[in-house]
Amino acid sequence: MKIVTWNINGVRARIGNLTHWLTESAPDIVCLQEIKTVDEQFPRAEIEALGYNVETNGQKSFNGVAILSKLPFDEINRGLPGDDADDHARFIEGVFSTDQGALRVASLYLPNGNPVDDERKFSYKLAWMERLERWAEERLRLEEALVLAGDYNVIPEPADARFPENWLRDALFQPQTRQAFRRLKNLGFTEAVRSVTDSAGVYTFWDYQAGAWQKNNGIRIDHLLLSPEAANRFSSASVEKHVRAWEKPSDHVPVAIELSLKPA
User: Does any domain span residue 12?
Assistant: First the structure.
């Protein structure tokens, strides 16, 4: 089973790229972030025509997450618990039946947190990560295959940036941000890409400005974390970097994993 995360950076603006990629890559489950549309305006028909079930948690003009799945949804949960006042559409969880039991997949779009000097924005980022940690700890008690997939807006290590020195004042690379990511992983998750390679130069985001893509001036901020039950079925991870060279691309690219699971 192929599960992919992709910050699409506007699904209606890039529906052509999305449908082409779905046909080319043939994922079973896709977690999208930054769909930037309300649920009613999501281009559902084009995606359903390719054999996918669609669930969204949208928001006008910014944020928004979705899960596309060839498997039927057994359950869908929208919004990260822990703060009733948080109206940002950044979280959606789907539950599916497989031959190995339940599979839970969450599509996450963590807050950017910049500028760091804006205490409100950076505090919101850290508080969101704390809520995610509490939620994940509860889900792990179910002892099910769980995949947390998304744009974390976290550069975990210096090797995850072409020029880490350029990110020292950025919320994505602050010690508190990286510590929060480590705490989440240390609950018992396997970080998919780093479990198969420790090489530098593996990036998932290239800014539109200053020729970042052409110069390979990238960072790695899109991650898939696997519970022990998912990690036991894990076989590969890859970054589909070529998509960044397409016309009218997102500034992120798909990151994929393969699990040895089959629909029930």
Answer: yes
